[in-house]
Amino acid sequence: MSTDPDSTSSSRSRLLASAKRLMAQHGYEQASTAAIAREAATSESQLMRYFGGKAGLLDEVFNTLWKPLTENVQRLIAEASDAREAIEVLLSTVITAFGEDHDLAYLFLFEGRRVRGSGPGISLSKGFVDFSGLLHSLIRRGKRDGSIDAAFDENAAASALMGAAEGMIRDRLIAERSGQPKPFSETQIRSVFHAMLLGLSLHQPVVP
């Protein structure tokens, strides 16, 4: 097999593309390294050489897919007037991107964080960790700039916003896979997050 740089880069890229498609289509557990290597027209030994195994391959799929999305989000966030607007942009942009890349949406929802093997640990992709960390940092920024009420718990707010984003990604993915039209538009996505974030700007005490 050729070892020139172009050949190496090509086989590595093919493995990433095959892993993304097969893991999204069949799930992480059912997508074997043999099938991935076969579709990529290379060998399992090459897969092991580049990624160390299937878990490392999935991590690299996430990292490769998240990089351009993160760069775009960072640019848009820098243009936001405050943290509340930045969060709205962050979540809306991610949902839109996942609407255009259904394999990435599936992997994010079902493979981005889950129990792997027989141990108790949860496997978190770097992309998911970075996304969650950015959301938390923007909530803290919002508390400082006054666009989010300081009385709200950071973890609860992040969980609620993340849950709303995942719910919309999931509903869009289900509609696409069942051949149905998109259940809501980009404008409707933004309007939902706008309303949620307005609610976070003024804390209302819960009456016992």
Key words describing this protein structure:
71% helix, 208 residues, two-stranded antiparallel ribbon, 9 helices
Can you describe what's shown?
This protein is mostly helical and 208 residues long. It is 71% helix and 3% strand. It has a two-stranded antiparallel ribbon. A hairpin with a 6-residue loop joins strand 1 and strand 2 (122-124). The model is unreliable at 1-6 (pLDDT under 50).
Write down the secondary-structure element order: HHHHHHEEHHH
Largest sheet: 2 strands, antiparallel
Strand order of the largest sheet: 1-2
Give the overall average pLDDT. Answer: 86
The tally of beta strands, per DSSP, is 2
Furnish the topology, listing elements before pairings.
Elements: H1 5-26, H2 33-39, H3 44-51, H4 54-78, H5 83-100, H6 102-110, E1 113-115, E2 122-124, H7 126-145, H8 154-177, H9 186-200
Antiparallel strand pairs: 1-2
Helix pairs in contact: 1-2, 1-4, 1-6, 3-4, 4-5, 4-7, 5-6, 5-7, 5-8, 5-9, 6-8, 7-8, 8-9
Quick structural summary:
The protein has 208 residues and is mainly α.
